[in-house]
């Protein structure tokens, strides 16, 4: 019996880049029909053809192109959402151009329009490193000499879709992010993908006896920024339990769990499938650790009634600032220790293997809150 492999698609930055490339090509050619464009994905080293749904000249100096997201066999909520890119010639001095948005090069500027989120703390548009690298590589090839352009990205359904994501937990509001570390969109939510993850893990386990489990794109990006080799990273999505056991059976000796605290907190409560549809309990687990360390009842009630784990973390930070105490390090230190112990026990219960597990928890600004003692040992 054979089963079809889940079909991969492309990440949102790829379609945004394709729309921008098409709009620029149309500005250059005017009357030439453009039904698809070739995009160098950079990561992986592959060139792909992306369909263009609509394209039009807006003014003598600008054009608009529309693509439509196709993440493959993935229950990604951006499936079929339109991505617009407006490209316009700029005729200004470098000083004047600097006010037009993020500068990719001396001649290429980008900005987020309707439906593209922004960081609530910094005000910066949520267009990240891979998307910018992709744009620069593909636009520079076709940009005429001595010309400058402004690319404006628009996601008409961005605000609506953002309410169904965890973007707000990371401080990204008013829309979606152009986020990713690769151009390929893996079908993470298709059950068969777990088997694909296990195969990747087994291949990496042949080369390394210590691996880093990254829960989502944010974990991958921060781990890379810390200098951790991508060769040692495994993106686990929500399947932490099966992946921990798979690593142990592949003779991995140590595992570093690298993730947003709102996900990893669940492991401290013995929840090893972290999707919110399966189980939650984050605030209950956090409150229990606070109580065990002696946090006063009034503050426990405030923690328990917070809307999100991020809000609870902020409350503890405010307590520390006001009273000169150290609740964040104490509480999160104990939780990280519990995560390590529960993970190690889970592995041994499932397959009688002893594996050292360490954990690194970060907040919505992608700043590390705590590293467990085991994490420090593994990182060395």
TrEMBL record:
Catalytic reaction(s) noted: Co-precorrin-5B + S-adenosyl-L-methionine = Co-precorrin-6A + S-adenosyl-L-homocysteine
Pfam families named among the record's database cross-references: CbiD
Keyword ATP-binding: no
Gene Ontology MF term list: methyltransferase activity
Keywords for the protein's UniProt record, in alphabetical order: Cobalamin biosynthesis, Methyltransferase, S-adenosyl-L-methionine, Transferase
InterPro entries reported in the protein's UniProt record: CbiD, CbiD_sf
Manganese in keyword set: no
UniProt record similarity statement: Belongs to the CbiD family.
Protein name as annotated: Cobalt-precorrin-5B C(1)-methyltransferase
Gene designation: cbiD
